[in-house]
Please model this.
Amino acid sequence: MLDLYSPGTSVLHRMTPGPKMLVMMIGATALFINQSLVVTVLALFSVLGLFLLAQLTLKQAWAQVRPLVWIYALFFAVQWSFSGLELAAYVVLRLATLILLASLVTLTTRSSDMIDTMTSALRFLKPFGVNPAKVGLAISLALRFIPVLAQITQEVREAQKARGLEKSVIAVAMPVAIRTIKMADDISVAIESRGYRP
Model:
């Protein structure tokens, strides 16, 4: 259910998960440290360029951020009111870039490969009582959850739009929260029913 992998033969598809995830973490950290709107715009176009390199279309890239447009609009309005237009644009573009970056990794990496890579990388924590397999699974699910949450939000918005409630934050947020909790519960049941004991 959470495997959003899009099959392909691009360089990014053939690359092992480790380097992709490392670049994603470094890129995300750099985006948070960066305070420049120009650099953020360049980062956004760079990520879009990686989508094309991965033989993914800009339509697929847009599909990753489109469900959250209303959230971007809300953030933009709040930041513009309190901090000005430039900061508002910076905050929204940075968020969109982060989501696209995470989506790029999930679209070009199989879930099983991602979990195996993280489990191996976290083995150094085992002497401290940490279960690397469980941590790897949790991180993998979290990465997969970002695009899924966007999809859920879009579906709820479309349903509420038919009722004339698309402008109500509560009318959209509550069903999203309920469906998110239900999905998390379904995942937990599925893992338990398969006897997964990392």
Summary: The chain has nine helices and no strands.
